[in-house]
Write a structure and sequence with these properties.
Layout: H1 15-26, H2 42-74, H3 77-94, H4 98-101, H5 117-129, H6 139-149, H7 155-216
Length: about 220
């Protein structure tokens, strides 16, 4: 018996079944092309190889590269710690029982933090230079930190330095404005000179015209 071809034997006679065949091919099922002998139809084998190279190798590597770039942008310690804190907060709120929230081993009243001495000193010096150290909060802790790290700091001197810096910045702005005004004055002087030259040329031309008229008479 000879089976008459239908939409199941040749899925490419209809646009809907052909799209489904391509979906199956992407999923790894190439049975839609099994009705043709590859030796008699080498173009099908070539197209299968090209399709696998394009989709599996090129597009997958492209997606992996884009994913790595996105991970590289967000892969810093700050985002990691923020996400970790959010997860811990959700666990404490929704997954712990009331008596578990009162455990001192999990939730102590005092938490000790470790900080590198050199990095802390560098950060404090940066805050002092930028004027962000005097925030009127935790004054005793700030004094103890300065004493332990042996950092000399006088808030009055720091304020005086900041005032001097602001005054210098204002002076620089004024000097820039003066330079601009001087340049404008120079341009105005040049314009005045050009106007006087133009007037003198006009007078000379008028005299020449009168002389020409007299000579013509």
């Amino acid at each position: 018996m000879i089976q008459t071809p239908d939409k199941n034997t040749n899925m490419f006679i209809d646009i809907r079944t052909s799209l489904f065949a391509m979906y199956l091919f992407l999923a790894g099922d190439s049975s839609a092309l099994s009705n043709w002998a590859y030796t008699d139809n080498p173009s099908i084998a070539i197209l299968i190889v090209l399709f696998s190279l394009l989709v599996v190798i090129y597009l997958m590597n492209l997606l992996i590269g884009l994913l790595n770039m996105e991970i590289g942008e967000d892969n810093n310690r700050v985002s990691y710690l923020v996400q970790k804190a959010e997860i811990l907060a959700e666990i404490e709120l929704f997954y712990l029982l009331p008596h578990q929230r009162r455990w001192q081993t999990w939730f102590p009243e005092v938490i000790h933090y470790y900080a590198d001495v050199d990095k802390t000193r560098i950060e404090i010096e940066r805050l002092i230079k930028e004027g962000e150290w005097d925030n009127k909060e935790f004054i005793n802790m700030q004094e103890k930190l300065l004493e332990q790290l042996q950092i000399k700091y006088n808030p009055n001197e720091n304020m005086a330095i900041l005032k001097k810096l602001s005054a210098l910045e204002k002076l620089d702005e004024k000097l820039d404005k003066l330079d601009k005004l001087e340049k404008l004055e120079e341009k105005l002087e040049k314009l005045d000179k050009l106007e006087t030259l133009e007037k003198s040329h006009c007078e000379i031309l008028a005299k020449l015209e009168k002389l020409l008229e007299k000579n013509a008479c």
